[in-house]
């Protein structure tokens, strides 16, 4: 899942549109015909690429006909599921879905055992080779959207640079820093701008997808990176509530978490995308 700054704006803008979702096709039972193609909405990278790999290499053997519909925004994949225009989507993590359902009155749920990948945040620097080398007063750039900024701060906390106030959740900001021994200065930027900021700051916390686009490898270039273990930001397969047991959905869930897909992710994304299973 990418650039949640765009996501939040899009969700708010879509509020009026989604008020009428229940009257606009929510009665469709897209999972009623087990022989029909499974239509899945996804963002292009890496979700669409992963689904296309499954379609081209694994689906036929599993007895699944798969249709991949790509979207470049983060609202349409959910509204399409809610309205029954597609059967499932694959593009989001749980904190985003919880926020979307709350704001839009939708009832989309994660498919059990179908968390596929994490796009890990990493700390990058052109000036130091390890976090402990950051000097007092160093400037660290952070993504400025709610979800990713909290993730970035939690990553810094997990690696001993700061401490956050007790009980701070997924909306932490620099104002929630309780201890900052190095007196780090935080520069908040749009997530897409972070790779370009590296020459102007001492370090930057960058999303995996933007690192990949900037030819930065989380595995080779990041000073530290998020772990997929017990990480709430793993991207998963999602459906409208009640369709979790659709046999086609169950088949796709198994394929998405198969050894073949894990190897595809490892080979293609060089650590910018990490299998979460």
Automatic annotation (TrEMBL):
<dbReference type="Pfam" id="PF03180">
    <property type="entry name" value="Lipoprotein_9"/>
</dbReference>
<keyword id="KW-0732">Signal</keyword>
<keyword id="KW-0472">Membrane</keyword>
<dbReference type="GO" id="GO:0016020">
    <property type="term" value="C:membrane"/>
</dbReference>
<dbReference type="InterPro" id="IPR004872">
    <property type="entry name" value="Lipoprotein_NlpA"/>
</dbReference>
<keyword id="KW-0564">Palmitate</keyword>
<keyword id="KW-0449">Lipoprotein</keyword>
<comment type="similarity">
    <text>Belongs to the nlpA lipoprotein family.</text>
</comment>
<feature type="lipid moiety-binding region" description="S-diacylglycerol cysteine">
    <location>
        <position position="24"/>
    </location>
</feature>
<protein>
    <recommendedName>
        <fullName>Lipoprotein</fullName>
    </recommendedName>
</protein>
<feature type="signal peptide">
    <location>
        <begin position="1"/>
        <end position="23"/>
    </location>
</feature>
């Amino acid at each position: 899942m990418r650039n949640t700054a765009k996501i939040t704006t899009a969700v708010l803008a879509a509020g009026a549109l989604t008020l009428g979702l229940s009257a606009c096709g929510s009665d469709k039972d897209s999972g009623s015909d087990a022989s029909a193609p499974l239509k899945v909405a996804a963002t292009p990278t890496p979700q669409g690429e992963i689904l296309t790999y499954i379609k081209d290499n694994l689906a036929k053997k599993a007895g699944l006909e798969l249709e991949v519909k790509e979207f470049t925004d983060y609202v349409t994949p959910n509204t399409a599921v809610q309205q029954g225009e597609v059967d499932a989507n694959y593009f989001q993590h749980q904190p985003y879905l919880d926020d979307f359902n709350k704001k839009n009155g939708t009832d989309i749920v994660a498919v059990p055992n179908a968390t596929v990948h994490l796009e890990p945040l990493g700390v990058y620097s052109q000036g130091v080779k390890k976090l402990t080398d950051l000097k007092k007063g160093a400037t660290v750039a952070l993504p400025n959207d709610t979800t990713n900024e909290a993730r970035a701060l939690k990553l810094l906390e997990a690696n001993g640079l700061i401490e956050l106030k007790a009980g701070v959740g997924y909306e932490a900001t620099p104002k929630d820093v309780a201890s900052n021994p190095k007196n780090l200065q935080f520069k908040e930027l749009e997530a897409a701008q972070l790779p370009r900021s590296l020459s102007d700051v001492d370090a930057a916390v960058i999303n995996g997808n933007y690192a990949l686009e900037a030819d930065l490898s989380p595995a080779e270039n990041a000073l530290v990176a998020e772990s997929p273990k017990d990480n709430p930001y793993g991207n998963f397969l999602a459906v409208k509530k009640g369709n979790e047991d659709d046999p086609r959905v169950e088949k796709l869930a198994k394929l998405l978490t198969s050894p073949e897909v894990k190897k595809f992710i490892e080979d293609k994304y060089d650590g910018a995308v990490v299998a979460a299973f």
